[in-house]
């Protein structure tokens, strides 16, 4: 049996297709749409242009699922729809016009599914998991591979870009403002400062940073561990708002040229907050966790 999971995020919409055998899910392929829904929010509402573009993407995915004979599927949305005032209107529009129900995840559920999707590959029993999205950042503190505390910061790589960056990449002053905003949100969430050595990183922003670090030879090919100290070195490599910086970003992750550095700053600031010594980048995350929960795996 084939099973499709569609994740409607603030930065991208992604379809994953799995083959199900005896309650085991084998990943087959993924298709990504760089929609950038967070860029279509006006007065905390997803505007008409954003709604129409989302409808077009959902319709395309529905056609793909039909063509591939994927009869079992779920669509879910995270901060992209959760945090807008007209969330119910958008979800109803998709259902009324395309007959596709969309499950809007709460902050707690998004954090839980990100954790469940990654827990099996974690190198350490105790640590912190972060899922850096386009519109929010989920933080899960866990012990003995069980959730102890979870938090959601109302900022992501795309929302920070839209709010504070005047060009393709942030300048020195804008980087400082972004750092201050992240620190403010960490304090506002009332997360207790503590010493945690290990971090598991989830989501497209974290994976994009890992790929860039491999491309620039900071991390060996095949490795998924990042030393947090190298994040500062990477920041210095990308500090100039010039063609050389653009070329590095385009060669590695062209679709994330504008969001990669804001995402990097989020990771770096959370590492500083918890005194992280090792980051493991997970291949899996909220989509796999959601699938496991839906199928009772």
Blueprint (SSEs and pairs):
Blueprint: E1 2-8, E2 13-21, E3 24-33, E4 41-42, E5 45-46, H1 48-67, E6 72-77, H2 79-82, H3 87-98, E7 102-104, H4 107-118, E8 127-132, E9 137-143, E10 146-153, H5 157-164, H6 172-188, E11 198-202, H7 204-215, E12 225-226, H8 229-237, H9 243-252, H10 260-274, E13 278-281, H11 286-295
Parallel strand pairs: 1-6, 6-7, 8-11, 11-13
Antiparallel strand pairs: 1-2, 2-3, 4-5, 8-9, 9-10, 12-13
Describe this structure in words.
This protein is an alpha/beta fold. The chain has 2 domains: 2-104, Nucleotidyltransferase, domain 5 (2-Layer Sandwich); 122-281, Nucleotidyltransferase, domain 5. Helix content is 43%, strand content 24%. It contains 11 helices and 13 strands. The chain has helices at 48-67, 79-82, 87-98, 107-118, 157-164, 172-188, 204-215, 229-237, 243-252, 260-274, 286-295, and strands at residues 2-8, 13-21, 24-33, 41-42, 45-46, 72-77, 102-104, 127-132, 137-143, 146-153, 198-202, 225-226, 278-281. The protein has a 6-stranded mixed sheet, sandwiched between helices. It has a 5-stranded mixed sheet with strand order 3-2-1-6-7, with helices on both faces. The longest helix has 20 residues, at 48-67. It is globular and about 45 Å long. The relative contact order is 0.16.
